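User: Can you recover a sequence for this backbone? Please restate the input before giving your answer.

Assistant: Of course. Working from this structure:
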């Protein structure tokens, strides 16, 4: 499952690189390395900062930690994620200004999207990477039931190659649950 998620992330970055090929100076391997930096560096740093901030807010206030985590999920956690995603680009500009000046707008856009895709890949792998035993094959990928009202879908290789900007996982209704219910009533 994680390999399919990583393949979808790689295809998405490759598609953007192909789209910006007329104006980019970065190699595909550099962009794929940026996906790895997003997954291995940005995601743990984001998790650590979010953990520290939520614990700090809970300790400073009179709210229980669960309420702070629920509030943070839609207020300041997304802002922390976005800041940490662009932090490697800011660090590049600060430490190596010559390299930063050589990169164009398209290169910065592609690097930022690759870093973000790495963070999304890490989130998907941590959340759904170990549920392959529960996955069932559907047209276009593999679905895992989340409960009564939804499922997560990991796209197959063919689905990743034939769709625009595939994501490692998406939540939705593939109809697999509906097909199982229909089969059970006949």
């Amino acid at each position: 499952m994680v390999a399919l998620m990583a393949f979808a992330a790689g295809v998405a970055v490759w598609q953007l690189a192909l789209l910006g090929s007329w104006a980019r100076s970065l190699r595909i391997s550099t962009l794929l390395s940026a996906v790895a930096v997003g997954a291995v560096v940005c995601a743990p740093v984001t998790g650590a900062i979010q953990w520290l901030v939520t614990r700090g807010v809970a300790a400073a206030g009179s709210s229980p930690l669960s309420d702070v985590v629920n509030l943070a999920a839609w207020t300041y956690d997304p802002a922390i994620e976005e800041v940490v995603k662009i932090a490697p680009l800011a660090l590049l500009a600060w430490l190596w200004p010559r390299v930063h000046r050589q990169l164009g707008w398209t290169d910065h856009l592609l690097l930022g999207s690759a870093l973000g895709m790495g963070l999304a890949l890490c989130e998907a792998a941590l959340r759904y990477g170990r549920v392959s035993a529960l996955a069932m094959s559907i047209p276009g990928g593999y679905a895992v039931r989340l409960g009564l009202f939804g499922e997560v879908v990991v796209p197959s290789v063919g689905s990743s190659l034939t769709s625009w900007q595939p994501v490692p996982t998406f939540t939705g209704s593939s109809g697999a649950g509906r097909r199982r219910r229909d089969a059970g009533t006949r």
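That completes the design. The beta strands are 136-138, 141-145, 151-155, 170-172.
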